Amino acid sequence: MKILIVDDSKTMRMLVKRGLRQAGFTSCEVVEAECGADAIASIEKQKPDVVLCDWNMPGMTGLELLQQLRSQGFQSTFGFVTSEGTPEMRSLAEKAGAQFYVAKPFTHEDLRRELGRFVA
Amino acid sequence: MTEAPVTLDWWLDQLQDSGRELAVVCLNAARCECRERSQGWPKSFAGSCVALVGDKCAAEIGICTETASSDRLAMMMLGFGEGEELDEETVGDAICELANILAGLVKTRVAATIPGFRLGLPVFFRGSMAVPAGSESGSVLLDVDGIAVRLLVLRSGSG
User: Fold this and answer.
1) Which end of chain B is more exposed for a tag (fewer CB within 10 A), N or C?
2) CB B90 to CB A82 under 8 A?
């Protein structure tokens, strides 16, 4: 199982990786991307099973990335890990094809509950 | 819209509650107490701000500390222990991320009263910042496990 973390913040990528370990997803291979363009390149090369993506990033937003990927037939699991916690944003994410949504600040239990539905 | 009066004090309530959640969940703080609430911003500070942009109003949400305290906050956030060190870039990035999460929490809290805010990207800031005419600013000083953390809000327009 390969997980791609997309976030412009190195700190946040470190926190998500730590959260994944604490949540018990220790056998997953984790790869990282700093922005939407990097994510698209990484997805083509790495073929991740799950994408964990920030919402607000310089350049392409996480939502725009998801919309582009889905329009190109990307089928893998995609979820947001974001400080955007309003119902309005959750609804936008769901309509665009996100399967789960983790609002910051999150605990490893939050990651386990949401990702556990998709990661063995 | 609700009937809640949107005053600076109301904004400081949202900021304080959001700061407590940030301290407990994100920093694993055992203690978080409000030491002071005041109008205005510090004359000079180092920290990070995030814009909340709405159709009729806007706000800036920020967080600042002393330099040594920024290191400690970043280490708390990342779960680093005594003796471990973080480089300056990572500390700055961590403070920006704390401001980003804080602004997201504030946005969620105010959404029932002021819907439609868009969240900006965090900007690291060092120095003095003039409060624009027509704006109101205030701050909340929190004691987070012995670290003085000042949360900032600046509001303009009809919110």
Assistant:
1) N
2) no
Please, are residues B152 and B137 in contact by the beta-carbon 8 Å criterion?
Answer: yes
User: How would you label A88-118 residue by residue, b for 16+ Cβ within 10 Å and e otherwise?
Assistant: ebbebbeebebbbbbbbbbebebbbebbeeb
Q: Which of B112, B120, B106, B107 is nearest to B151 (CA)?
A: B106
Are A83 and B25 an interchain contact pair (Cβ–Cβ within 8 Å)? no
> Is the pLDDT assigned to residue A58 strictly greater than 70?
yes
Characterize the bridge pairing of strands B118-119 and B147-157.
Answer: unpaired
pLDDT at B83: 84
Its pTM stands at 0.94
What is the ipTM, given to two decimal places?
A: 0.92
Q: Could you tell me if B75 and B54 are in contact, meaning their C-beta atoms sit under 8 angstroms apart?
A: no
Gap from B16 CA to chain A (nearest CA, Å): 15
The confidence score (pLDDT) of residue A119 equals 84
- Quick check: B25 contacting A, CB < 8 Å? yes
Question: Min CA distance, A63 vs chain B (Å)?
Answer: 14
B26: contact with A, CB 8 A cutoff: yes
Whole-angstrom Cα distance, residue B96 to residue A46? 29
Does A83 contact B74 at a Cβ distance shorter than 8 Å?
no
Considering chain A, what is the average pLDDT of its residues? 96
Per the CB < 8 Å rule, is B78 touching A18? Answer: yes
DSSP label at residue A54: -
